[in-house]
Amino acid sequence: MIVNVIATGSSGNLYELLDSKGNSIILEAGMPRTTFTKFREGEIPPEMCIITHAHGDHSYYANNYEMICPVHRWEPYAISENFKAFGYKVEHGGVLNYAYLIKLIQDDQFLFFATDLEYEDESFKPIWADLKRLEVNRFLIECNYNGYLYSLATDEQKIGCDRHFSDNDLVRFLRGAGATAPKVITVHGSDRLSADTYTQKYVGAKFPSGTIRVSTGAKNGVKNIFKI
Fold it and tell me: Averaged over 77-81, what is the pLDDT?
């Protein structure tokens, strides 16, 4: 599968997921369709757009995408011809928010997608059970900040962090999912309290058989594409 990280972070989120046949879906709608058109990787129209929650950096341009495909706004299920997505409610400051287990039907592969979520063991139990049962090892998942920088930050800099995943939260989540050799793309890094190189080394050291990569979104006209 191919994950095209067009934009990620508090200024806007937009991701494109493609299977081996070139079929695709859009994840999030925090950037306009013109941005998608400029940086898209797929050559055929996307089958659907899935949006996790109502915050503007994830949903503001939802109406743009209704012109090209069905849009699913924070719904528990989303199905198209070549993709199935099952949603799990996750905590994010009281806002209705879903993480999604997405099946690429043609490839018989799964991707777990989660962003803007708080670490909460009880809500993760059904997610972990499914990830273990299906032996899911591909993750497009938030790593918003790292614990070391957080420990040095001011109270003002820490505002909002408790509604997001840290590097330690990500490690705990992957372990709870039974992942031993996960293929991970991290998203939604903070401009204030994250360091991409540190994140990759720190999380990678916890999973030496895995592959940990940090996304930044398209920069200076260059796409941010991952094959996992």
Answer: 98
